[in-house]
Amino acid sequence: MAGILAWFWNERFWLPHNVTWADLKNTEEATFPQAEDLYLAFPLAFCIFMVRLIFERFIAKPCAIALNIQASGPQIAQPNAILEKVFTAITKHPDEKRLEGLSKQLDWDVRSIQRWFRQRRNQEKPSTLTRFCESMWRFSFYLYVFTYGVRFLKKTPWLWNTRHCWYNYPYQPLTTDLHYYYILELSFYWSLMFSQFTDIKRKDFGIMFVHHLVSILLITFSYVNNMARVGTLVLCLHDSADALLEAAKMANYAKFQKMCDLLFVMFAMVFITTRLGIFPLWVLNTTLFESWEIVGPYPSWWVFNLLLLLVQGLNCFWSYLIVKIACKAVSRGKVSKDDRSDIESSSDEEDSEPPGKNPHTATTTNGTGGTNGYLLTGSCSMDD
C-alpha cells in the first residue's frame, strides 16, 4: 500500500519541476491546499442532500401548491393483470414477437398494447410537482453559489488579469473564502453524483454521469496541485447560466409560457456566450498558453487541460441541443418538449387513447393539451 500511495502521489506527476510536497506543507505564515481537505466533501455532500429534502418538502412544495401545480402524474394505464405481469417480471419494452403473442392472447391490436406499455412506463415518471421542487432546489443553490462566486472573485486580482493565476505558482496561499467555495462546489457535485440515481431519469443520463465525474475530477485535480485560482474562474463561469435554466423550467411547470420563453432565451444567450465564447477565449487561453509561458507544462498540467477540453466538448454538445430547441421554438412559436424530455417523446399524443380508439382524437399526457411542453432539463457546469 505504501508503494501504491508513493506511486500515486509522485511529485513529478502532480507538481512542476523542482517542487515537492514538503514545499507545500502548511506553516504559520501560509496555508496551502492539502489532499486530505477533500475528505470534508463527503459529509458535506450528505448534509447538502438532507438540506435539499427539507427544502423541497417545506419550501418548494408549498410554493408549487400556491402556483396551482398539482401532484398528478401521467395518465394511469388501464389495469390488466397479464400485461402487468409482463411489465414487472419480463420486460418494459416488449419486442415485436412478444407484442404479437400478447395481441392474440388478449384480442387487442398491437398498437393498443404498445400504447399500454408506454402509458405504464410513463406512470413511473415523477409528477410536475416533483419536477418543480427539484428545479426550485437547483435554482436556489445555483443562484447562491454563483452570487458567492462573483462576490469572491471581484476582489481577486486573477479575475481582472488571468496571468495572476500563475504568478508565484504553486506557492499561492489558500484563503478561507477560496477553500469554502471549492469544498462547497465539490460537495454539491458529489451529492449530484449519487442523487442522480434517484432523481428524475432523463435520456442523457450517461452524459450527465460523465459530466459530474469530470467536474469532480477537475475540482479535485485543481485543488490538489493548487490550480485553485483558475479553478474558481471555471466554476463561476459555468454556474452563470444554470439558475436561468432552472427558473425557465419552473415557469414552464407553472404554465407561465411567456416567462418560460423569455427565460429560455436569456439562458441560451448566456450559455452559448459563456461556454463557446468566454470559456475558450479566456479560461482555456490562460490554462493552455499563459501557464505554459509562466510555469511550463508537467504531467498533471496535461491531464488538467485534457479534462477542460472534455468539458468544452460537452459544452458544444449542449449548445447544439439548445440551438436545436431554439429552432423548434421559432417554428412553433414557443419553447416545446425537447430531446431531454422527462416523459418519453415517441407518440406521447396517443397515450390518452383507450385501446381500440382512433389515435388522432387523443390529447397529450402532460395535461396541457399540447400548449406547454417540457424544457431542456439539467445543467452543465464545471458543472457544469
TrEMBL record:
Residues 130-331 form the TLC domain. PROSITE patterns: HOMEOBOX_2, TLC. InterPro entries: HD, Homeodomain-like_sf, Lag1/Lac1-like, TLC-dom. Residues 85-128 bind DNA. GO terms for molecular function: DNA binding; sphingosine N-acyltransferase activity. One of its GO terms (cellular component) is nucleus. It is a multi-pass membrane protein. Its main location: endoplasmic reticulum. Residues 83-127 form the Homeobox domain. The chain crosses the membrane at residues 38-55, 180-198, 205-224, 260-282, 302-323. Pfam families: Homeodomain, TRAM_LAG1_CLN8. CDD domains: homeodomain. Residues 338-384 are annotated as: Disordered. Pathway: Lipid metabolism; sphingolipid metabolism; Sphingolipid metabolism. It catalyses: sphinganine + octadecanoyl-CoA = N-(octadecanoyl)-sphinganine + CoA + H(+). Gene3D superfamilies: Homeodomain-like (1.10.10.60). GO terms for biological process: ceramide biosynthetic process. It comes from the Eukaryota. This is Ceramide synthase 6. It comes from Chinchilla lanigera (Long-tailed chinchilla).
